[in-house]
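Title: Comparing notes on inverse folding

I've been comparing how different people in this forum approach sequence design from structure. To keep things fair, I'm posting one structure and asking everyone to reply with a full sequence. Here's the target:
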């Protein structure tokens, strides 16, 4: 190898330059994703029903959605959660399912489902790796108690981070909010007859 390098210096020079150019081009075009891009076979359907209890949401919204969407071709598993004012239905599709055509089929199936008058229009979201957060950060501020720190994060840190280019949303966890609990004395509220 050393004899070849001495006899053919221009060939070695050209090979080194080509390696450098390929390295620079590769580095500048490299993406900084946390995970590679791939399709997850999950779809979430969220439907609001303001003022409804979890039981009412389940019987009038969740069950019709489960039965109507569970028959879509490719659906392998249906799980749901009924809460006060809204429900979430998660659909798991077979691995080989084309998710674009599945979204169209789900949209058509939703048009055939009858929901109560007060219920909102179901929102379909395809689960993707882009929905995962890119950064987790913890915040500490010396000299502030937990309430002052929570206010600082909500009023200063979150708005500042949301204004940055490329930031879709910022969520906080662990922030403390002051609450007031009012307990009524049931004995004093009774009317005397």
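Reply #1:
Here's my take.
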């Amino acid at each position: 190898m050393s004899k070849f390098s001495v006899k053919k210096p221009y060939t070695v020079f050209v090979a080194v330059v080509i390696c450098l150019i390929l390295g620079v081009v590769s580095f500048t075009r490299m993406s900084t994703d946390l995970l590679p891009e791939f399709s997850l076979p999950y779809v979430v359907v969220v439907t609001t029903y303001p003022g409804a209890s979890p039981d009412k949401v389940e019987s009038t919204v969740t069950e019709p959605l489960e039965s109507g969407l569970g028959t879509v071709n490719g659906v392998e598993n249906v799980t749901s959660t009924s809460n006060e004012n809204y429900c979430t239905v998660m659909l798991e599709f077979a691995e080989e399912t084309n998710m674009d055509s599945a979204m169209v089929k789900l949209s058509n199936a939703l048009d055939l489902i009858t929901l109560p008058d007060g219920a909102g229009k179901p929102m379909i979201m395809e689960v993707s790796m882009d929905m995962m957060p890119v950064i987790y950060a913890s915040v500490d501020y010396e000299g502030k108690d937990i309430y002052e720190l929570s206010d600082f994060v909500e009023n200063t840190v979150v708005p500042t981070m949301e204004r940055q280019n490329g930031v879709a949303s910022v969520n906080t966890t662990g922030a403390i909010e002051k609450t007031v609990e009012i307990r009524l004395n049931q004995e004093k509220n009774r009317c005397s007859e």
